[in-house]
Recover the amino acids of this structure.
């Protein structure tokens, strides 16, 4: 029987950072590139990290914006506890155990909403609703950026992504057992969608300045701004 995404990450929580670093090619590069295109005068005061996990992106947010109020949100209580323990000295982080497909924040609340490798866990209709909700809770001129896994535009490209991913993950030190675990997780909890779909939905819900900032195999960084 399939376990829920929440149970999967609860079980993985203390091993997550070690395993993901051996699974995602150029993982650290994602956190570097997420901050390269922000306007020079962008000084977000309130930031939301969607699907924070153990806090690998949260750490990069803290590095760039140490004085911001940072909201770290995740559906998994155990992985969120790992994040809380990691940042126990940082009093500017507020934690939310919440499902991001039903976000509950006031309008015009955040300057910056960011996410890494999490949005593919919800279905396409929920992704679109999430983008509408993100637009609502961002302040005018606020920025939304996410890094995530995407599908190829054709099945052939997608299967080549998966084959290349396996080669890279094994080179990074994933064992065949780790790989099988990620593939079972993918079958159970992943909804990969071509990057062009994301760009179209962001435009349709009302974002502007939408672009792909970086791409490697199936991982992309997408940027969008509220007018
Ligand atoms: C692959 S991890 C990414 C964690 C972190 N952002 C990183 O880059 O290492 C995906 C995270 O998204 C969370 N997640 C999955 N579905 C979610 C949902 N519907 N609402 C909130 N969090 C969710 C999982 O619990 C997990 O911590």
């Amino acid at each position: 029987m399939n376990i829920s995404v929440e149970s999967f990450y609860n079980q993985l929580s203390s091993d997550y950072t070690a395993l993901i670093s051996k699974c995602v090619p150029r993982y650290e590069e994602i956190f570097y590139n997420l901050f390269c295109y922000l306007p020079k005068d962008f000084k977000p005061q309130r930031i939301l990290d969607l699907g924070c996990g153990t806090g690998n992106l949260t750490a990069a947010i803290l590095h760039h914006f140490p004085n911001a109020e940072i909201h770290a949100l995740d559906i998994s209580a155990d992985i969120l506890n790992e994040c809380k323990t990691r940042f126990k000295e940082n009093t500017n982080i507020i934690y939310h155990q919440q499902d991001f497909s039903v976000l509950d924040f006031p309008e015009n609340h955040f300057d910056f909403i960011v996410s890494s490798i999490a949005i593919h866990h919800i279905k396409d209709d929920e992704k679109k609703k999430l983008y509408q909700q993100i637009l609502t809770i961002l302040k005018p001129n606020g920025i939304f950026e996410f890094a995530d896994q995407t599908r190829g535009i054709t099945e052939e490209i997608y299967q080549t992504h998966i084959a290349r991913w396996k080669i890279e993950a094994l080179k990074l030190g994933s064992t065949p057992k780790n790989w099988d675990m990620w593939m079972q997780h993918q079958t159970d909890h992943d909804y990969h969608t071509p990057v062009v779909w994301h760009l179209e939905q962001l435009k349709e819900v009302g974002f502007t300045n939408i672009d792909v900032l970086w791409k490697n195999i199936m991982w992309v960084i997408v940027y969008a701004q509220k007018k």
Remarks:
- The mean pLDDT is 96.
- DSSP finds nine helices and seven strands in the chain.
